[in-house]
């Protein structure tokens, strides 16, 4: 195993480990957080930390796995594209969810510390 | 004793068919709708048994939860929200006799067809060594002898288009008719002409920007799914549906008025018709070539067969295209994409406009 492959393997395993940790943290957060918006925060941890990171890790692992031949580049490329999609779409999805939930008043806002959006709306800077 | 053992499935089949007929009759004449639902569930149970005996376990697995569990549950919820009993007059006696005679007639016809199939194949139940058939199909999917192969490594596409293309052909026709139906229902509705304004309409700027980035990517993925249909899992239908996601994204994230800049309903209908004509032509293209050169060919033929020596080229410049499979995928992609685009656009017409049109018709 060459040095580059060794480094790639170590990085891949580390990223997958970080992903697993993030999934556990997100699961705990989903169960323990009090309302929709903070739970959404836990869900984004699962999406970015728990999905994006391990997919990158898997791609690196695939790159380092020479037994696959040239197929490993296709595998890694597919993984990177999927990760890029996730990186763009997961935050947008949670943003739209949060916005819809906030403006439709379908969720309970309590407990809250600060609500900047409400202040802006009162001042008339933001409209629904 | 052994003969009786062999007869058992036939007997169970006959008895459950009869019992399901009785259950249907009871379900139709029953005034208490909850009981009628129960009768219909009993009929479904018998049908599941029949399907099991006819060796289609996959259909049984879908049929039991849907028709015994889900459907009665939905109907019972509906009944709970409306009325439990049919109106007092109910079905008049003469029409109930008509229904009974219709049911009996259908049973006889079905029984006759069953006997006929028994006479033709000498066996109602499919043979137990169906695995051999599957092996044969898989072995001839990609085998570099063109006489016995569809020349495509993708088993499903190869089997669908080269061995039983009729199935997909009629599937396409069903979807064609469904969209024609939707168009006929919406023949007086028009998407109102309104200027799309970026600041007021649609979701937030974050969503819009992300959609602008993602929509071309989805289209690329969809086209690649469709064009690789003969190489990898996927194909025209799947690619078309994936591409249709872009239309719904444009409608939901931006606005209908933004979406109709790119997808006019009439243009979509035209493109869809072009796709359907392409499918029909691909089905008969080998036959057309054969007739014009005085040879023999089958409809839906792709590669040469033993008594029909004509076949489409399976590669172009070293790239595998599997003859008609590539054409089918391209045209199916077009037809399905545009079909769903039409549906999404029709569904996005505001309710008030539809109400207005209906009210105008009533007066």
Automatic annotation (TrEMBL), chain A:
<feature type="transmembrane region" description="Helical">
    <location>
        <begin position="71"/>
        <end position="90"/>
    </location>
</feature>
<protein>
    <submittedName>
        <fullName>Cation:proton antiporter</fullName>
    </submittedName>
</protein>
<dbReference type="Pfam" id="PF03334">
    <property type="entry name" value="PhaG_MnhG_YufB"/>
</dbReference>
<keyword id="KW-0812">Transmembrane</keyword>
<dbReference type="InterPro" id="IPR005133">
    <property type="entry name" value="PhaG_MnhG_YufB"/>
</dbReference>
<feature type="transmembrane region" description="Helical">
    <location>
        <begin position="6"/>
        <end position="28"/>
    </location>
</feature>
<dbReference type="GO" id="GO:0015385">
    <property type="term" value="F:sodium:proton antiporter activity"/>
</dbReference>
<keyword id="KW-1133">Transmembrane helix</keyword>
<feature type="transmembrane region" description="Helical">
    <location>
        <begin position="40"/>
        <end position="65"/>
    </location>
</feature>
<keyword id="KW-0472">Membrane</keyword>
């Amino acid at each position: 195993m060459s040095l580059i492959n060794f480094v790639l393997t170590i990085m891949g395993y580390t990223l997958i480990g970080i992903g697993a940790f993030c999934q556990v943290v997100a699961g705990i957060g989903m169960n323990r957080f009090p309302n929709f918006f903070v739970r959404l925060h836990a869900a984004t941890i699962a999406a970015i930390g728990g999905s994006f990171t391990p997919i990158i890790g898997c791609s690196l692992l695939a790159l380092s796995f020479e037994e696959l031949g040239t197929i490993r580049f296709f595998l890694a490329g597919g993984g990177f594209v999927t990760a890029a999609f996730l990186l763009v779409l997961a935050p947008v999805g949670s943003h739209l969810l949060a916005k819809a939930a906030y403006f439709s008043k379908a969720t309970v806002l309590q407990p809250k510390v600060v609500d900047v959006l409400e202040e802006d709306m009162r001042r008339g800077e933001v409209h629904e | 004793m052994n003969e009786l053992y062999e007869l058992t499935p036939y007997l169970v089949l006959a008895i459950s068919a009869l019992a399901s007929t009785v259950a249907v009759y009871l379900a139709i004449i029953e005034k208490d709708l909850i009981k009628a639902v129960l009768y219909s569930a009993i009929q479904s149970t018998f049908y599941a048994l029949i399907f099991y005996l006819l060796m289609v376990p996959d259909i049984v697995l879908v049929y039991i939860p849907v028709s015994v569990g889900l459907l009665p549950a939905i109907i019972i919820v509906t009944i709970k929200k409306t009325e439990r009993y049919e109106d007092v007059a109910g079905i008049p006696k003469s029409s109930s006799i008509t229904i009974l005679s219709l049911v009996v007639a259908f049973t006889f016809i079905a029984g006759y067809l069953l006997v006929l199939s028994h006479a033709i194949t000498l066996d109602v139940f499919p043979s137990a060594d169906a695995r051999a058939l599957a092996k044969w199909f898989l072995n001839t999917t990609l085998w570099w002898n063109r006489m016995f192969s569809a020349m495509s490594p993708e088993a499903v596409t190869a089997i669908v288009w080269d061995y039983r293309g009729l199935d997909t052909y009629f599937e396409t026709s069903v979807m064609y008719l469904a969209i024609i139906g939707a168009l006929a229902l919406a023949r007086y509705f028009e998407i109102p002409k309104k200027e799309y304004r970026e600041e007021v309409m649609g979701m937030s700027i974050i969503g819009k920007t992300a959609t602008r980035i993602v929509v071309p990517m989805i289209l690329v993925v969809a086209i690649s799914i469709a064009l690789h249909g003969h190489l990898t899992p996927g194909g025209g239908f799947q690619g078309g549906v994936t591409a249709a996601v872009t239309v719904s994204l444009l409608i939901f994230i931006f606005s209908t008025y933004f979406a109709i800049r790119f997808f006019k309903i009439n243009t979509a209908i035209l493109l869809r018709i072009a796709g359907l004509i392409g499918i029909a032509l691909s089905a008969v293209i080998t036959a057309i070539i054969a007739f014009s050169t005085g040879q023999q060919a089958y409809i839906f033929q792709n590669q040469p067969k033993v008594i029909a020596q004509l076949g489409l080229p399976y590669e172009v410049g070293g790239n595998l295209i599997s003859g008609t499979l590539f054409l089918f995928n391209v045209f199916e992609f077009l037809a399905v994409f545009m079909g769903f685009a039409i549906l999404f656009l029709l569904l996005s017409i505001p309710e008030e406009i539809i109400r207005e049109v209906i009210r105008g018709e009533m007066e």
